[in-house]
Design goal:
This is Two pore domain potassium channel family protein. Keywords: Ion channel, Ion transport, Membrane, Transmembrane, Transmembrane helix, Transport. It holds the Pfam family Ion_trans_2. It is built from eight helices and two strands; from the N terminus they run ααααααβαβα. It has 223 residues and is mainly alpha-helical. It has a two-stranded antiparallel ribbon with strand order 1-2. It is globular.
Amino acid sequence: MPVAITTRWLAIARRHPSAWLLGAQLIAVLLYPALDDTAGGRAALGMFGMAVLGLALWVVQRSPLGTWLALLLAIPSVVFSLAGALLDRSALLTTAQLLESLLYFYTAGALIAYMLQDHKVTRDELFAAGATFTLLAWAFAFAFAVCQQWYPGSFQGTGGGAQRTWMELLYLSFSLLSGVGLSDVVPLHPQARALVMLEQFSGVMYVALVVSRLVGLTMLRRM
């Protein structure tokens, strides 16, 4: 009986990898506030982040774009992240964040290509729509983190200080991508404002081109 249950769950996982990626990212949103304040918590988040990277690579396999570029970004990202944490070198961590940003952008693009490759809307593609949104939010949050390392004081928040926390940057990213604009973090440096404008544009175009297409195809299937 346990073997049958395990086999069933593995089959579901293979059919809906985007759901696992989306679920992992939403769980991470809940974990960050509780674990980001301690060294042990940050280490746990780092391990969880690597698991999310693994899920991202798994999801990319279903895309027509392939996995070789994702691997070229993911492997150095993990190496730089571990080296930066062990050696306490901010430059290494910044490099890891840059690579992670590029990886999440690539994975989001791969999922969009996966959703656009045919005129059928599967359940996994609906999960992919949500996963793509969170991937873009993560990608821009990492880009913001790199920006504030390269240009100190890029973002100003209510907490004071020159550097914003990861949770603040992720909150800003979700606010911009969703179009609600409720963040209390403000971009000050021109480079930061350029990134913010790119994310605002990406959020509008994602809804206009990708989500609307999925909704339209779903409605046509039911007619």
